[in-house]
Specification:
By secondary structure, this protein is α/β, with parallel strands linked by helices. It has eleven helices and nine strands. It has two domains: 179 residues, Rossmann fold (3-Layer(aba) Sandwich); 91 residues, Pantoate-beta-alanine ligase, C-terminal domain (Pantoate--beta-alanine Ligase, Chain: A,domain 2), CATH 3.30.1300.10. A six-stranded parallel sheet has the order 1-4-3-2-5-6, with helices on both faces. A three-stranded antiparallel sheet has the order 7-8-9. The structure holds adenosine monophosphate.
Length: 294
């Protein structure tokens, strides 16, 4: 049975009880509307820990667009049913006020001193295109880590820059261990995302162009291209005339994050894309050097 815990305080008590019983604890933070990509993270946590907990919270602090926050899909009852199928121990949600008692300035903001600095990996790309996004991510993840005090926390490579920000945060805090899991994709290559539910049939048909562009850049890498600007040109050329509006299509050294494109030639590379299909913003990335399976 997956316990449906009523609020963050109940989750804190549940986690304390697991620790008191000597159980290792795995944690998967999510914004819900769960899909197979999320469930793969939970399955990995279940396999690697004695107890696993999932949070479902559409965190207003990490949205730079109120319309996007309102439209974000929510289905806690459906999420709880899915978590049951993969043996998750407990799930919880809460309001911003419940997560940050006495520190909210409004339903979507905290008082200025309550935010956590996301550090240098928040610069560039997502950080540049979504003002305050990683500050919101770092703030909620730090709070969640305080509440659950897990041994391992699981994040998806789909949000590549987020894994850097969270990894950095966990290092600064002295834990937990951050486990990064491969991106789950639809058969046509589209990275699974809760936002895919919002795509019209026509937009859904165009969306796999993002993965096709990433794969084309990987082909160039495989045939010896190491220049980040050249690789990014391939991404942009493949995304032109697809009906998707590009926020960015860039290449970075995954181990030495830079806000701007690094000077080539690269020894390691990750290609990252953010594009909008109508109002729906999609992000994806691919290691060009084949260092992971995603
Ligand atoms: P979200 O609910 O979008 O905040 O995602 C919660 C966690 O699931 C994050 O660590 C995401 O990176 C991860 N995730 C989302 N989509 C995928 C996917 N397609 N494959 C693997 N992990 C994912």
């Amino acid at each position: 049975m997956t316990a449906l815990l009523e609020d963050p305080a109940a989750a804190e008590r549940w986690c304390a009880a697991q620790r008191a019983a000597g159980r290792s604890l795995g944690f998967v933070p999510t914004m819900g509307a769960l899909h197979a990509g999320h469930l793969a993270l939970v399955e990995r946590a279940v396999a690697e820990n004695d107890a696993t907990l999932v949070s479902v919270f559409v965190n207003p602090l990490q949205f730079d667009d109120a319309g996007d926050f309102r439209a974000y899909p929510r289905d806690l009852a459906g999420d709880a049913r899915l978590l049951e199928t993969v043996g998750c121990g407990a799930v919880f949600s809460g309001t911003l006020e419940q997560f940050f008692p006495g520190r909210c300035a409004s339903a979507t903001e905290l008082e200025p001193g309550a935010y956590v600095d996301p550090g240098p990996t928040a610069e560039g790309l997502e950080g540049a295109h979504r003002a305050g996004h990683f500050r919101g991510v770092a703030t909620i993840v730090d709070r969640l880590f305080d509440l659950v005090r897990c041994d391992r926390a699981y994040f998806g490579a789909k949000d590549f820059q987020q894994t850097l920000v969270v990894g950095d945060l966990a290092r600064r805090r002295g834990g937990p261990a951050v486990v990064v899991c491969p991106t789950h994709r639809e058969p046509d290559g589209l990275a699974m995302s809760s936002r895919n539910l919002l795509l019209t049939p026509a937009q859904r048909e165009r969306a796999p162009a993002i993965h096709a562009a990433l794969a084309a850049a990987r082909e160039r890498w495989r045939s010896g291209e190491r220049d980040p600007d050249e690789l990014a040109s391939t991404l942009r050329a493949r995304l032109a005339d697809t009906g998707l509006a590009l926020d960015y299509a860039e290449v970075r050294d995954p181990r030495a994050w830079t806000a701007h494109a690094p000077a080539g030639p690269l020894e390691r590379a990750v290609a990252l894309v953010a594009a909008r299909a109508g109002d729906v913003r999609l992000i994806d990335n691919l290691r060009l050097d084949g260092e992971d399976a995603a």
